[in-house]
Structures are given as C-alpha cells and as structure tokens.
Amino acid sequence: MLSSVCCMRLNTYGMVIGWLGVIFSILAVTLLSLGLAQANRAHISNLSVYLAVAVIHLLSSAMLVLGTVKKRHLLLLPWLTSSGVLLALNSIAQFFHWVYLDTSPSLLALPALLFSVAGFVLQWYLYNGIYSLYKQIQAKRYSASADFARQTEAPLEQTFQQPVIDEMLIK
User: Fold this and answer.
1) Is 71 left (phi over 0), alpha (psi -120 to 50) or beta?
2) 79, 66 in Cβ contact below 8 A?
3) How far apart are CA 66 and CA 141, in angstroms?
4) InterPro entries, from UniProt (predicted)?
5) I need a surface site. Which of 34, 47, 65, 77 has the fewest CB within 10 A?
6) Secondary structure element (H or E) that encloses residue 16, with its range
C-alpha cells in the first residue's frame, strides 16, 4: 500500500486525479459530441463508443472527488472499476503491441517498446495510488465504526438491573 503518490498525500492525489478526470472528460464529451454531429455513417459507431466511455469516466471521476471529500470508500469504486477495466484492456493491447514490435527487425522498434513499457508501469502506479486511498478510507471508516460500537455497548451488568430480576424471582 502506498502512503503518498508523486510527493502528494493520498487525499490530495485523489482530488487531483478526480478533478483532472472531470476536466478532461468534459472536454472529451464536448469534442466527441461535436464530432458525432458532423460524422458520416462510417464513424458514428466508433464515436458513440468513445462518447459513452467519456461519459462513464466523467461520472466516475466526479464520484472519485466526492468520495475523497466525504471520506466514503464506496464512492471510489466506480473509478477503480472503470479504470481497472480500461487498464486491463490496455494491458492486452500492450501485449499485442509488444509482440508486433518484437517481430519488427528495425531498431526503431526499441524506443517505442521502452516508451510503452514506461507508460504501462506509470498507469499501474497511478491506479495503485487510488486503490491505496480506497483502502486507507475503508480502514479509517471501519475502525471509527468499531470504536463507536464499543462506546455504545453497555456492559452486561448494566443491562440487567438486579431489582428487576429479584422481583421476577419473588413472583
């Protein structure tokens, strides 16, 4: 588990990633909507899929910001899920990209391969930062609820009062 990402505390990192996701998703939704309005039939299905992904990312990024502010770990799950799916799909695409570059005899393939590996490692690191934030909020939330439960529990001796029990035995 990480305690900080890019020299930022996890809460700050969650806010930065969430707001960047919201800003870029709004930009993507706007541009894709404009492109969809002017697209020919061949490109409509591709643009529609990209638009749907951008809207999902917009909603999950907004929930990431809200979950970080309110300290609710379950609000981070949509971002973790959607980003996890995209990361898995990117992993598969990277694998096929590496296979294609490995079969290429050119030395120009080496920088592309190294760049793709560096980007892949960075994506996993950034994802792990939000996952660490999720686990941190979850741990604090459950420890706080356990403390509250311990404080509200009455000792067994106080639960049953002796005079009431004595009256029941006399009858």
Assistant:
1) left
2) no
3) 16
4) DUF4728 (IPR031720)
5) 34
6) helix 10-38
